[in-house]
Amino acid sequence: MATPPTPHKTALITGASSGIGKALARHFAQDGYQLVLAARGVAKMQALADELQEQFKVAATVIGADLETNDGAAKLHSEVKARGMVLSALVNNAGYGAFGEFKDSALAPELAMMQLNMNTVVVLTKLFMPDLLATRGKILNTASTAAFQPGPYMAVYYATKSFVLSFSEAIASELEDTGVTVTALCPGPTASGFQDKADLGSSALVKGKKLPTSEAVAALGYRAMQRGQRVYIPGFVNWAMAQSMRITPRNLATKVVKTLTRPIA
Known about the structure:
Blueprint: E1 10-14, H1 19-30, E2 34-39, H2 42-56, E3 60-64, H3 72-82, E4 89-92, H4 107-135, E5 138-142, H5 155-174, E6 181-185, H6 194-198, H7 214-227, E7 231-232, H8 236-247, H9 250-261
Parallel strand pairs: 1-2, 1-4, 2-3, 4-5, 5-6, 6-7
Helix pairs in contact: 1-2, 1-7, 3-4, 4-5
């Protein structure tokens, strides 16, 4: 009797047009996953999809999605299901930050950031959970070392990443007997389009510093996901800082981050 063919593994990656998301897509393709790439930058994603299909002989579907809107995540889920796809991996990578004092920032971008960085993660995880339970799949949520403490000058962004880390660890515990794993990837500052969008060029956090590449962070994060590691912080210095913040008095931790992130000329 012939052995039935092994069904293809399928991964949805949000924020796949650049940075860590784009680099992650390459690792999934290299491992034979069929890809669903979702972001607003359709042209960039299509170029990536064409390249990965040619190099790794996997199918790559591009879906334009505005995940900062209230119904963006639900629309993306509907698009994926309308194409008959069943996910075996979900990568909640889309997100952005903004640098500056909260008293001076506009409200609308802060709310859009909360929608993208938090609500979209919850909605996509909830809606695709039946797929992931059926396939004993994997979830990779891009958090940040920002998740481990409050962040003056990026107050809302740091808070959203704390949410992602807490949410990821909690559902990882709930799902531990189902075969589904959840990994929170917590990189420090990384060379990507993030800094430009966040207007971080004048921050002591990144100005004049050599940052790890998106490709390096993605490679480490992908391996952590495949191991089923719940929290992964790339780089010893980042790891040590995150651990120290957990035992540092809150007022002192906030002062340290304020100094490290402050605007400089």
